[in-house]
Structure formats: structure tokens, C-alpha cells
Amino acid sequence: MKSHPNPDVPARPTITVVGVGGAGVNSVAHLHDSGLPGVTLVAIDSSNQSLARLSTSRHASVQRVLLASRTRGLGAGRDAVMGALAARADSDAILAALGQPDIVFLVAGVAGGTGGGASPVIAALAKETGALVVGCAVLPFGFEPPRRHEAAAVARAALAEACDAWLVLDNRKAVDVAGKAIGLDGALRVADDVLRQAVQGLAEMVGDQGTIDVDLPAVRAVLTGAGRACVALGACCRRRSSAWPARDAMRAALESPLCDMRGLAHAKGVLLQISGGVGLCIDDAAAAVALLETRVPATCRVLVGVACREGLGGSAQVMLLGTGLCTSAVSTEADTDIARGASAASGTMLPAPLSWSSALDSRTRPAAEHAPAAERPNVGRSEGRRDNVPEPAHHGAAFRAVS
Ligand SMILES: Nc1nc2c(ncn2[C@@H]2O[C@H](COP(=O)(O)OP(=O)(O)OP(=O)(O)O)[C@@H](O)[C@H]2O)c(=O)[nH]1
Ligand SMILES: [Mg+2]
């Protein structure tokens, strides 16, 4: 039972990120060090050594759970059965650390004993608390032995079964994104940072920091029992100012070669968070939404949140989380469901919007109805929704590893 809310305190959905096993603990440490506000962090591992990195006073806000009853704090030795037993043996400690969050983001390297074995158990415990559970399965690097990949495939399926929605972050793709020349540590940090942006986007969307927030019940409706999901991130960088930064960021997210976005064509729902500077204009945000709607079915429910942050200047970022994907439409091998792209574009900023309210609602109408003229080859400008807004020249999107 959730405690009764105090009417004097504005209610805010609570998000907890749970890192399981060595990879999960590292992700949580990165989230902490990036200063993500409004998100509770929990690190769970069967290895004392792994959790020790979060023992400093600087990390006091991170809750740690050592699954020691079965392992003596020595790790699960790559044995997923041991990882599962360890989590079951310490389930009370896990439940106590979880509390009663609204949304749990659970991250684990599923090739590991703890990550692979304990994460489905912890996901099930999190669901017992009433939380919406989104699992993120980190897949092994290409250089890791085949048996690790096989173990990861089995554990990924178990994690998927235990979560409302699940997605994959493939370390092989992280290396591609980071570039071959970058060190292993650099590739790991790229993966961790992609996850940070996804969590941050979700936190902004349901938190009270945005210009337009999305209700938790609406987010619940999209994520509950949603199955396979994907996250795409796009950015239009400040140093290359664009007339349409949000739309260009959306294009970057959708066209990133790092993610197989074909599944979006079958998506049942999309959570979209658009973040831009204070000058972010309504037509630009609407164009970003319209561009997305050209890629999803007419029946897809798109929820849009918008946050204007002074620090973003003329740049924009989008985070989209597509759910209910048809698994046959996305590759099942060597895939990542998290992508990020950066768009290079030039031009001038449009004037600030007068009102946000009408253009950015939850919508289920056919995509073509909303697509701006520029995205619909056979529709004349007089039929478009932005007749009096000059159409910027098309800028080819360039994708870079790290924006
Ligand atoms: N992205 C990312 N992946 C990692 C990181 N550390 C490990 N991995 C991946 O996660 C897999 C599992 O490794 P760990 O998380 O260390 O394993 P564990 O869950 O602690 O399992 P045991 O040590 O057997 O208990 C590895 O095979 C790597 O592919 C990290 O810091 N970031
Ligand atoms: Mg370990």
C-alpha cells in the first residue's frame, strides 16, 4: 500500500534506478556522478568489492545491497543460478531498499552471474511493490566468449519476462558509437551515458521540471505490459545552430544507424521528451512530433513532454521510448535498443512560442494528418499546419558518435 499523499506537498512520481551486478553498479555510479536530480539510486551486487566503490561519503545517497547470504560477498562467479539464489536469499533487504517507487529502471549486464541471475528476481520483487518496471539488459562485448553471449540470451529472456517493458543495450554497439580507437573504459562510459540520458528524459517527462509534463497514469498506460521497447536519443548541437533544432534532433534519433528502428513501425506507444533552450519554438516541437508520427502506426499513442532549460541555448535533445514493438521487426542478434544521434544543421532560431497548449497533446490521429508539408511529399503547403512559418532548407543530418 502506498502511503497517503500530503496535500500540501506537490506529488511527484518517484523513479528509482536499480543497478544489478558489476555493470549495473557502474551504471548507477555514473548516474550519481552525473548529478541526476530527483532519481533514487540503488546498487545491488553479490560482490563486496564492486559495492565498495560506492562506500565514500560522496556516494552516501546511493543505497547499497550486498547479496551476501549465499555468496559471502565474493560474487556469483558468472553463475546465473547462484545469482538468482543470492537475490532470493536476500529478498527482504532488496524490498527494503526499493521502497515504493512509481517507476523502476533496472540495469544489469545479463552475461554476469549476478546481473543475469539476480535481475529477473529483483524485477519481480519491484513489481510486487506496485512499481512499473523497465528492464535494461546490457549485452556483452564482441570479444567476450560465446558462452557469455549464450548466457546473456537466456538471462535477457528471463528479465524480459519479469518486466513491464524491456530494452537492450549492446556493448558491441557502444564500441561502434565510441569508435574503435577508444579504450574499453571509454566504450563503457558511452553506454552508461546513453542510459543516463534515457533515465533523465523519463525523469523530466514525469517530473515537475518540464514545461509540459506527462501524467504518471498516462505513462503507466503506455509502459504497463509493453514488452519489447527501444530508446532513441537525438541531439542538435548548440554550436551548429538550426532553425529547427527539435526536429533535427528527432531526425538524428530516428535515422541513427546505431539502432534498428524498424520496430517503431509496429509500436503501440511512444514516450517522447523534447528538451530545448528557452527559445524552443512550438512549431519546431510540433514538427519533431510530426516527424515521429511518420514512422509509427496511426494507432500508436504518442505522449509528449517538453522541457525548456536555459543551459541548452539553441540546441535541442529528444528522447523517445517506443514500446510494444513487434520483435520480428527488430533484429534479435547483435541489436541495441538504445541509440543516439547528433544532427548538424545551420540556420537561425525562430521566435519563441506564444503558447504550448494546443500543439503538444497526447495524440492517436493518423500520422499524415500531423506531418508538416516538408515531411509529406504530396501535400501542398497550404494544407500544412505551419503555413505561415518559413520552411528551413533541408540540412542533411550528420551522425556522430558523441555529441
Ligand atoms: N556497459 C557496461 N557493461 C559492463 C560493465 N561491466 C561489465 N559489463 C558487461 O556486463 C557483463 C557482466 O559483467 P558483470 O556485471 O561484471 O557481472 P556480474 O553481474 O557482476 O556477475 P558476477 O561477477 O558473476 O556475479 C560483462 O560480460 C560485460 O559485458 C560496465 O561498466 N558497463
Ligand atoms: Mg561481479
Element string (H = helix, E = strand): EHEHEHHEHEHEHHHEEHEHEEEH
The biggest sheet, with number of strands, parallel, antiparallel or mixed sense and barrel status, is: 7 strands, parallel
Radius of gyration: 21 Å
Mean pLDDT: 78
CATH top level label of the largest domain? Alpha Beta
Span between N and C termini?
43 Å
Share of helix, binned: 25-40%
Category from helices, strands and their pairing: alpha/beta
Would you report the number of β strands?
12
Number of alpha- plus pi-helical segments: 12
What's the CATH topology name of the largest domain? Answer: 60s Ribosomal Protein L30, Chain: A
Question: How many domain modules?
Answer: 2
Bound molecules: guanosine-5'-triphosphate, magnesium ion
Shape: globular
Low-confidence stretches: 329-335, 343-403
Q: For this structure, what is the CATH homologous superfamily of the largest domain?
A: Tubulin/FtsZ, C-terminal domain
From the coordinates shown, what is the CATH architecture of the largest domain? Answer: 2-Layer Sandwich
Sequence of strands across the biggest β-sheet: 3-2-1-4-5-6-7
Q: Which percent range describes the beta-strand content?
A: 15-25%
